[in-house]
Amino acid sequence: MNSLDIKYTIRQLIRKKYYTLLNVFGLGIGLGCAMLMAIYLIHEFSFDRYHSKAPVLYRVVNGKSCTTPYGMGEAFRKETPEILNLFRIYGLDEVEIIKNEESFTEKSFFMADSSIFSMLDFEITAGNRNALLNQLNDITISEKIARKYFPGENPIGQSLKIRIMSNDLLFNITGVYKDFPSYSSLQADFITHIGNAFNFLQDIKYSLGFTDGKKIIDYTNDWKDDDFMTFIQLSPFADKNDVSQKCSKICQNNRKEKIVAEIYLQPFTDIYLHSNEYNNIDSFKVNQLKSLEIFLAIGLLILLIACINFILISNADTDLSIAEIACRKVNGASRIQIITISLFKTCFVAFLSLIPALLFVNLTLPVFNNLFQKELTVSLIMKWPYLISFFSITLITGIVAGIYLGFYVSGVSPTKLFHNRGASGRNNGNLKGSLVIIQFIAFILLVTCFMFMQKQYDYSLKKDLGLNTKNVLVVWLNNNDVIKNAQVICNKLIEGPNVQSCVLTSFMTPPTDNILNIQHRDKETGNVYKLEGLVFGIGELELLRIPIIKGESFTQTNAIDRNNIIINEATAKLFKVGIGNNIADFKIIGIVSNFHFHSIHQPVGAIIIFSQVSNCTNLLIKSNGNNAEVQKHLKEICKTIAPGYTYENEMLEDRIAQFYIREEKQIGTIAFFSVIALALSIMGLLGFVSINLGKRTKEIGIRKINGAKLSEILQMFYIQYIRWIIMAFIIACPIAWYAMYKWLQNFAYKTELSWWVFVVTGILTLLIVLLTVSWQSWRAATRNPVEALRYE
Question: Fewer CB atoms < 10 Å away: N or C end of the chain?
């Protein structure tokens, strides 16, 4: 292949710029989608692998629970020589920072052993690594927090006032560490001594009325309360399964209640993608491996559509290139030369598509980051293995597109080529039809999955949860003066015209994942069960309209006795108990109907409801719908009582919606890529139909001269595409049904796989195709027959 051939090929592409642009931008968008998805997948699979000791780090899992007693770690350390080191961690949802008489709410507050800094890779930017968390009031902070509260200053040695459970604590900053990378499942902005967790847990029990005083519990040998996450570092030569068995025996020997639960050592690098089956994992970021499989499939489908478009348009103008190939063969061109020119043309166009691909990634990456709340960058794929992969995909696409002209047509004799018969046959039409069908299958799959996911998402938000959360405000009482005057605030709110009821409660207002763990031994079987406990204020059952089936609700009289509890139907059925019976030394005074206190991913389980009459940290307000006025009134009341109070609230309905944020992101992603798939399909169809109509211009003219009507000519074109759509629909429906059936298994309560979704998708696809084909077909069918006959 010489320079003249290269120039001629480029001129051809410029002359056919409409088809060239369709090919370049169509494949470019497809490659861009694949790059975007690759960036996301690379990021998700790289979680926690940056720690140098990651291969020997494990989280201790007790049955299905990720929380363990503090004393468990101490016993493991003493009795298992394979464990070289360990740390425990306890996280808080949020704390309040007091700075210059202003308060700021912060999350990611953790209490941990000092060994965390030697087991995990922290980059300490200020302070002495060996002196971190030596004292109870020591604290280390991230660079982000240092910049926020100590701009332009050295924070080491300075104090930070933090309010926890209405207690103002003064911490001494001894270290600053670099912000955790986005691919870390642990995102901590504050890390203080693990001993502070002892005080905090005791405060919780006191505020709920479970203890009479505030004395410190000796957690060192405590095996009763599963409050901490325990992480261990094994010897490089240790066997994980052997250590698990040893740890299980240690637990059986130390637990007073013989809970049948094996110890499992979960690899630290598995926490992010393999933790959805475990409970109490709020402190760590997690994702679903199945979600990544869905996104991988979407990326491959989009890339497949783009590649098929490229191949279709590249080969749709076969007849226009046949005469050129025939002339080359007559003038002595060898088959190798023709193959080389053909492959150069398609590969050149394919590699041109990398330019719009990179442009697409740069334009859409901010939108993608906003959707998934990530910090993804193009640099993640700027590594040789990934670059070689994308270059290979591009090259293969170009080669496949050029194979037909290069290998098949070049072997046909010039005589047949000039007569335009040897190159255009039934097999070619079948091949192109198959490619169009595959394209439609991919599009139907995406649209069907999107519609079913949206249907399930709507079902999740509208499902009857067994409690009424409409127009219920949750207000955090994070100020001592406000807490002391909480009942006064309630009374003033109820006097207003917009508040129907107002209840003081604890921080564990349902539905939430913050629950108490209660152990109960079944007298008949001897088995020990872990129950979940919620804490309700007096009147909360009535405010949320949770029906009392038997017994009575909490009142000012019976709530004083901390042994009185209310259970749900699931608990009564599981243990065969009723009013007056005991569960874990607590007396049942009422039974309520089942209600959802978790997301509908999980079935309604057995729960115990405790009462709280003092030290409440939340305020529940049931309004008449005029929530803005209620909030305005509440702010005015609190301002007079506590001028420094920082007002924070959320709607209970919004808290429920947070349970399904993952599904919302999946739906948004599929919607985004479905639009891309639609655009690519239309682009490919436009190019393919345009070229095919050009080939049949003379045929159309002859049919019109012989009396063919406009409707008959249009019908001739429609039948072909309708047949392809029907075939694609028949193939795509069972695949989509199976994919959605597997996806819906993530929900304990799910919508139906309704037949009408498939019908709507099929009709939608048919309309899009017919609209795309109609315009060009109508122009060709209404053309003057004389002009059509002169076309060739």
Answer: C
Number of other CB atoms surrounding residue 136 within 10 Å: 15
Residue 649: give the domain boundaries.
472-658
Whole-angstrom distance, CA of residue 690 vs CA of residue 780? 9
33 plus 101 within the same structural domain? no
Using DSSP's 3-state secondary structure scheme, residue 642 falls into: coil
DSSP-derived 3-state class of residue 744: helix
Give just the sign of the alpha carbon dihedral 501, 507, 508, 511.
positive
In this structure, is residue 67 part of a structural domain?
A: yes
| E strand or H helix that includes residue 453 | helix 426-462
SS3 282: coil
pTM of the predicted structure, to 2 decimals: 0.79
pLDDT in tens, 412-461: 666 666 565 444 444 555 666 777 888 888 889 988 998 998 999 899 88
Neighbours of 429 (CB within 10 A): 12
Q: pLDDT band for 138, please (50, 70, 90 cuts).
A: very high
Q: How many domains does the chain have?
A: 3
Residues 587 and 451 in one domain: no
Residue 454 CA from chain centroid, whole number: 15
**What is the spatial distance between Cα 271 and Cα 277, in angstroms, rounded to a whole number?**
11
250-to-417, 522, 625 alpha-carbon distances in Å = 83, 23, 55
Q: Are 558 and 487 within one domain?
A: yes
Beta pairing partners, 534: 609
177's enclosing H/E stretch is strand 167-177
Pair 641, 684 in one domain: no
- Tokens 């050129």 correspond to 324
Question: How many whole angstroms separate alpha carbon 326 and alpha carbon 413?
Answer: 8
The answer to the question of residue 49 being in a domain is no
Q: Which residues contact 425 (CB under 8 A, 6 or more apart)?
A: none
Q: Rounded distance, CA 58 to CA 230, Å? A: 9
